[in-house]
Every structure is written in C-alpha cells, then in structure tokens.
Amino acid sequence: MRQHLALTVALAAALSVSACAGTTGTGPATEPTPTLTTGQDSNHAGDGHGAEEHYGIPEVTWDAAAEKSVKDTASKVMGLFARPDVPEATWFADLAPHLAPEYAEDAKYIDPARVPIRKITDGPAISRDAGNPMTVTATFATDAGRWRVLLHRSGQQQPWLVTAISPQDPTP
To answer: Which residue has the higher pLDDT, 89 or 18?
Structure first.
C-alpha cells in the first residue's frame, strides 16, 4: 500500500512538472511573471486564459461607458453634497450609498450647513492618470470656487465610489 501511495505521489509530481514545462524543451520551466496590466497576458493570448483568469487581477478598461458612468456618479454626488439646507441625517443617508466605506466614516461628521456650495456652475471635468482606469478626479466649478470629487472602482462592473470631496485649492 505504501509503495502504491509513493508511486501515485511521484506520478502526480511528474505530471505537474511536465504540465509547467515549456514546449521547446530547452532550459528550465518558468512561470510567467504577473504584471499589473489589463487585457490578455501575452503568454496566454488567445487561449482563454487572460490576466484576470490566470492571476486574479481584475481586467478593467477605460471606455465611453466608464466615462459616462463616472460623470453621472460624480454629478449626482456633488448635487447631493451641495445641499446645506438639508437636515444632517437626510443629507448623509442620501450620500452614503455613493461613498467608499472609509470616506463614509469621515462624511458622517460633516455638517451640511457648513458646506459652502449652493450652486454648481460647471462640470464635471474628468482627469485620470494614463493607464489607470480605476481612479478618477472630477472637478466642478461652484459658487464657492472649484471643488473636486475623487472616485474609485474596484472592477469593470463595480460602481464608482467617492473617496473624497474637497475644495480644489483649500484655503490655509
């Protein structure tokens, strides 16, 4: 029985090594190094094993739908934020579903009566780092100066959540 178990383990190990071996037969077998890029991994292009499936890295792209979605979310949140006459509990309850958990914890303590914005006059203007389809800054012109809303999503189909709202050029 022991010999049978040892033979089974050895056979399983040999099969797993041969499955990882390259097809050229030269050099040691190496596993491709995962990168933090989106799209297909070049070592697996066309085989149905993209970066997301092989390495667990979410595949996220920037396209017209992402831009529309982030603009819609930013506009809605800024409109909900700029309501200094709304009771605090209502103000926060309306905003909370659009906030990242960490920022929601901070936003609980914002007194809407102290928000100086009464009117949004332009925006959002969207900016993002090239190659980063997951984090965006939306800038608005308001009657209280320029304000920015930082938004993040954790995946292509995940909602944009606000991580911060602040004046663009805070006064010291």
So the answer is: 89
